[in-house]
Amino acid sequence: MAGGTLTSTPAQGLQVLVTRPEPQASIWAADLQSNGLDAHALPLIAIGGPADPTPVAQLWQNLASQRLFMFVSPAAVHWFFQMRPHDARWPAGTLAATPGPGTAASLMGAGAETGLTQAQIICPDASAEQFDSETLWPLLATMNWQGQQVVIISGGDQQEAKGRNWLSDQWRAKGASVQSVLTYQRAPGDWSPAQQALAAQALQHPEDHTWLFSSSQAIDHLVQHHLPAHGLAMPDWSAARAVVTHPKIAERCQQLGIRRITSTRPTLSAVVEALRSPE
Description:
- It is a single chain.
- The protein has 2 domains: 15-45 and 190-275, Rossmann fold (3-Layer(aba) Sandwich); 48-187, Rossmann fold (3-Layer(aba) Sandwich).
- Helices cover 36% and strands 20% of the residues.
- It is built from 10 helices and 12 strands.
- The strands form 2 sheets. Strands 3, 4, 5, 6, 7, 8 and 9 form a 7-stranded mixed beta sheet that branches.
- It starts with 14 loop residues before the first strand and ends with a helix.
- The model is unreliable at 1-12 and 158-162 (pLDDT under 50).
């Protein structure tokens, strides 16, 4: 397996619960099903546009004044370009960065018609162990950032932008001016009756299910919102299984009491391999 295993977790014959936001949850579930896994979408995060789109509109009017836009996720790409003026063009002198190739692919798909080119996008290679700020920064560190302007296109909660603090600190130490702009909002969202039934079944029979977590916040939403909102009792998490796509998510699972945890890279092939791992 490409990722590091904390505790090997089998999932063949198990139902896999994909907890990403929609539409990613359904896309991932379908991709896992095409690889022979019994996967189901159970989103723990809902994403919507910002209550105030003015800051994003202002950015679109001043793209050329920015040296680089950092897009933290496919959702950041989607909502930023959702608010694009129809005649906006991406300046030749403005770069873009992403933490991984998945977001880069979303960015290229959304930005190609504006003139954005692949050569302007900076992101870790698909073979990188992790797709995060720490892996991205070495690709940026040697550039001249003195006096340059950088914008982190991110999401947040209740109109508070959640920027990449560590990455922002690195840029500022190099002399750049960094701002974080909220382009989408995260919330727990609501489950359909079918999803509620699926969650209840997973909590009652943890030995038959594997939770696929790609966000620590998803776990927080599960525990703090979804369980009490649907009258579901807090289970004995020690019997639960989880596959996670970042060490920090593994730490959150351990804090919750989950013992059967497999940590892997956030690519489809790596996740499939992790879900098929023998005990």
